[in-house]
Amino acid sequence: MLKFAQVAIKYWEEALTVKKPGSGKQLAKRYCESGYYRTVTANNSIVCYKSKCKRDVLCGGVKIPDQYVGECYQLKNNRLHRSYRNGSGIPSDGYVLFVDAINTITCYGGAAAYASSCLMDEETDRPILGFINVCPGNMGVHYPEDRISIGVFLHEIGHALGFSSYNFAFMRFPNGTPRTPRDETRKPKYRDKYGHYIPSINTIQKITRRWRSAAGWFTKDFYAFVTPKILNAAKKHFNCEQLDGADLENQYQTGPIGSHWEGRTYSSEIMAGRIQIDYSVSRVTLSFFEDSGWYTVDYSKAMKWEYGRQLGCDFSMKSCLDYAQIRRQHGRKIIPFCDTVNEARCRDAFSYGRCIIVRYGTPVPKEDRFFSKAPFDTEYPPEYFGGNDPFTDYCPTMAVS
Predict the structure, then answer these.
(1) Does one domain contain both 177 and 287?
(2) Domain check: are 300 and 362 in the same one?
(3) 276 and 362 in a common domain
(4) The domain boundary residue, chosen from 312, 339, 364
(5) 194 and 292, same structural domain?
(6) Within a domain: residue 216?
């Protein structure tokens, strides 16, 4: 797995350059064994009383080496005693990434890997330290699994670098000022009922669209990026000048705003929720990193991305059923979607596969129903059938091989 990680790290190192390095080296804080007893000195060091300084500071499940951790004092007999000294720190334009391989509860759910950032630059909010945990046995090393494994590392490093709902409220304008207003602690000003930071409407907006399914007409909400570089890249890819936002995933989230692109319209993009063998790091994802305010981007590193390319506003702003019916009315193929189980054909100019339709044990959500009659196994009503990937809003698509 190390060689796959190295390929992915090299890609991101070549694609992104830190735009505004901090003024000094950064250190993770070493807090106290009891979180109730700590304070911070004038030089931003931790002081513990009625408690010892923590010996180990973790990022994910990984112990952060002392060289990246700050000093910590203990108060004994009304005198300060330094238990740990400052490490040498993280370079102002650097990033420290830990890679681990431990079976966790997340792995038992079938994940190949997961990642997060653990520390942000105090001046710019750029993530500067993070981790990836690779789930043992859930990633392959031989073709075609090896290509997917590289994609997993590209994807997870993308999260660690900042493509995560936690980080969206910390994004910056090109001049370095916060896109989202801050409170007196320099944190984003507002949180939702889950405790997640809420990005400003100049960054992400809630968009309500009229939505057709086999069960009728509905309204469906999406959270979508509206920052200039992202939105312009999405408009060009889909050939939709009226596009109102680059949609984020609305399935299986811990909060209202997802950390992936919407699977229905961005299925093979590297930051969609499921890695496809024909994945691409597109200009849309690279535009996120430019719009974050943390990086300058080498767009020559963008990969060719065919999924949904030039399919217009009907594809990018409407349900897959609505799009399919409009295409049929004009005698056109409904790619990248499909309606005949196991039919084999091209999904786009780059990929070939077969149509995957499955029967679920419970009905597909009403707003996501594609079939008005059962495509097979007619003992069951049509609402039990859909595509095999909930991230695509149950739209039947071509499984690429």
Answers:
(1) yes
(2) no
(3) no
(4) 312
(5) yes
(6) yes
306 and 340 together in one domain: no
What mean pLDDT comes out for the span 208-233? 98
- Domain tally for the chain? 3
Give 3-state DSSP helix, strand, coil % of the chain, rounded to 5. Answer: 25, 25, 50
Q: Is 156 a catalytic residue?
A: yes
Angle at 218 between CA 384 and CA 225, to 5 degrees: 105
Distance from C-alpha of 366 to C-alpha of 280, rounded to nearest angstrom: 31
Q: Which residues contact 245 (CB under 8 A, 6 or more apart)?
A: 205, 207, 222, 224, 225, 226, 231
Residue 24: pLDDT band by 50, 70, 90 thresholds?
confident
Domain, as residue range, for 175: 168-312
Q: Do 7 and 147 touch, CB atoms closer than 8 A?
A: no
Domain assignment present for 7:
no
Confirm or deny that 260 is annotated as ligand binding: yes
Structural domain contains residue 48 = yes
Q: Give the pLDDT band (50/70/90) at residue 348.
A: confident
Residue 330 assigned ligand-binding role:
no
Question: Tens of pLDDT along 276-333?
Answer: 999 999 999 999 999 999 999 999 999 999 999 999 999 999 999 999 999 999 999 9
Question: For 79-125, what is each residue's pLDDT tens digit?
Answer: 899 999 999 999 999 999 999 999 999 998 889 999 999 999 999 99
13: pLDDT strictly greater than 80 = yes
Average pLDDT of the chain, as a whole number: 94
Does the annotation place 196 within a ligand binding site? no
What does the DSSP assignment read for 221-250?
EEEEE--HHHHHHHHHHHT-TT---EEBP-
Q: How many CB atoms lie within 10 A of CB 82?
A: 13
Shortest CA distance to 365 belongs to which of 232, 216, 257, 245? 216
Q: Are 50 and 154 in contact (CB under 8 A)?
A: no
Residue 102 lies in a domain: no
Catalytic residue among 122, 145, 156, 343: 156
Mark whether 273 and 392 lie in a shared domain.
no
For the segment 330-356, the average pLDDT, to the nearest whole number, is 91
Q: What is the mean pLDDT of residues 156-168?
A: 97
